[in-house]
Amino acid sequence: MTNQAGEAAKAIVRRNTEEVQGKGDFELFEELFADDFVDHTPQPGVSADKDGVRLLYKGLRASFPDLHAEIHWQAVEGGLVTTYKIYHGTHLGTFLGIEPTGRKIAFEAVDAMRVQNGTITDHWGVGNLYALVQQIKGEAGPAIG
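User: That's the sequence. What structure does it adopt?
Assistant: Structure tokens below.
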């Protein structure tokens, strides 16, 4: 992959983080994700396809309407873009059965997204949801910047 192609792949992933997840632009979601997209690490109860990711993103935005991520770094190798980011938001909707608390949250995530022909085709990722649940339950303050 050329440096230019690598930068283009990083930009696609960044647009997903900033514009789809951070601003709720689901028209852009339809453009960025391939129809045959596969999530190799889906969240429990969510299908491992494009519909499942759409459902996950919409659920997160309903629980945390101001959800946004600070991207700290991205690396690309062979069309696979790895991103380290910290999500921030306010718990204003039910999340994992926990009623809204109004608490501010911050949690880390690392994911890898394969970009082919200008669309996201695959995802692998981990998010520190344990820290998130602790924060909304008031068991720990935000430990992340």
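The chain has one domain: 3-136.
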